[in-house]
């Protein structure tokens, strides 16, 4: 653990308060929402909150994909302040909850505070073992490059070796995303990204592909990878072929091959590097053990990063990711308790 130091890993994402409820299929149909999908809220979702409040019991937890990932990473490392979160929030009570939770779980917090919007929220609709996310970005969409350029934040960037960003962040500040990507490349750090949701490859294809040459490690699930392939007219539904094609997209780092990690729910996790493909079985779970799949993808990356930043072999990183996801889906929300028991 002697390799661990403050600000070693920085995350860039949208800090959101999760409002989770177990709901009926009828509610999904009413709001045109799909199971296991993530979208940005549209006009038609204006009354969704009201419906949840009146018809279902909601639970509020600290959320936002990147913040969840870093919280899980910190939990596994058991040493505070290794990871730092950047994102934009409002000046309100939700922001205080998010910040308190992040700090309790060991994160450094470098939020940008805006007067122009309330803190963002994400409605998490649980139906059986599926979840549907609908995010109201609000303040999260007010993140600016100026925040990164403040001297104290530039210093944090200088100190980091690992930079992790959600695809969701591309919807907010593509300029900041490119600044981080180029900075990581220039100082020989590792820039890592998550495809995050199918809509990112569809509606934000340009910023995604501008950042891609700098991406050293890319995470995504099967559906997100398939959407990327479709958007590029690769004419394949084969996830292994898609993973290899993503790994071989143009790469600014001529010394290191890109690593691509594709999760497939209960099917094996696929790891691509150069021409090699490895698969890692996922622990089978009884349906009654699964409480909430909402944080599974975030937790997987948290587990992976906890090992990756201490330079463990990739096999160990993936196995820790699978272990972390398995822990989180047995809890409601992206929560954890006790000491982590991951064994290599």
UniProtKB/TrEMBL annotation:
Domain Carbohydrate kinase PfkB intervals: 28-336
A Pfam family this chain is assigned to: PfkB
Coiled coil regions in record: none
Active-site residues, as the UniProt record annotates them: 298 (proton acceptor)
Principal EC category: transferase
Enzyme Commission number(s) from the entry: 2.7.1.20
The organism's place on the tree of life at top rank: Eukaryota
Essential cofactor(s): Mg(2+)
A single cellular component GO annotation: nucleus
InterPro entries in the record: Adenokinase (IPR001805), Carboh/pur_kinase_PfkB_CS (IPR002173), PfkB_dom (IPR011611), Ribokinase-like (IPR029056)
Textual note on the cofactor: Binds 3 Mg(2+) ions per subunit.
Membership in a protein family: Belongs to the carbohydrate kinase PfkB family.
Function noted in UniProt: ATP dependent phosphorylation of adenosine and other related nucleoside analogs to monophosphate derivatives.
Name under which the protein is recorded: Adenosine kinase
Organism whose genome encodes this protein: Glossina morsitans morsitans
Phylogenetic placement of the source organism: Eukaryota, Metazoa, Ecdysozoa, Arthropoda, Hexapoda
């Amino acid at each position: 653990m002697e390799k661990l130091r403050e600000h070693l890993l920085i995350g860039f994402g949208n800090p959101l308060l999760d409002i989770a409820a177990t709901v009926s299929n009828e509610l999904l149909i009413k709001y045109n929402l799909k199971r296991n999908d993530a979208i940005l809220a549209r006009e038609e979702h204006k009354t969704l909150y009201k419906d949840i409040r009146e018809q279902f019991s909601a639970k509020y937890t600290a959320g936002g994909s990147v913040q969840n990932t870093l919280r899980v990473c910190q939990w596994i490392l058991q040493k505070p302040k290794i990871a730092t979160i950047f994102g934009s929030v409002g000046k309100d009570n939700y922001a205080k909850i998010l910040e308190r939770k992040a700090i309790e779980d060991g994160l450094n917090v470098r939020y940008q505070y805006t007067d122009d919007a309330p803190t963002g929220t994400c409605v998490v609709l649980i139906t059986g073992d599926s979840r549907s996310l609908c995010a109201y970005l609000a303040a999260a969409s007010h993140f600016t490059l100026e925040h990164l350029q403040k001297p104290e934040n530039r210093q944090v960037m200088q100190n980091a070796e690992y930079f992790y960003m959600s695809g969701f962040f591309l919807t907010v500040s593509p300029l900041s995303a490119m600044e981080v990507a180029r900075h990581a490349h220039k100082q020989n750090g590792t820039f890592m990204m998550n495809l995050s949701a199918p809509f990112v490859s569809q509606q934000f294809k340009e910023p995604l592909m501008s950042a891609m040459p700098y991406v050293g490690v890319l995470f995504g699930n099967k559906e997100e990878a398939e959407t990327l392939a479709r958007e590029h007219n690769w004419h394949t539904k084969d996830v292994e072929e898609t993973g290899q094609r993503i790994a071989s997209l143009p790469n600014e780092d001529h010394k290191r091959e890109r690593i691509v990690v594709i999760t497939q729910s209960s099917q094996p996790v696929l790891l691509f590097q150069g021409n090699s493909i490895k698969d890692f079985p996922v622990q089978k779970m009884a349906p009654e053990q699964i409480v909430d799949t909402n944080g599974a993808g975030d937790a997987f990356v948290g587990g992976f990063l906890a090992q990756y930043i201490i330079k463990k072999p990739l096999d160990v990183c993936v196995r820790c990711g699978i272990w972390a996801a398995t822990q989180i889906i047995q809890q409601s929300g992206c929560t954890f308790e006790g000491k982590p028991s991951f064994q290599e």
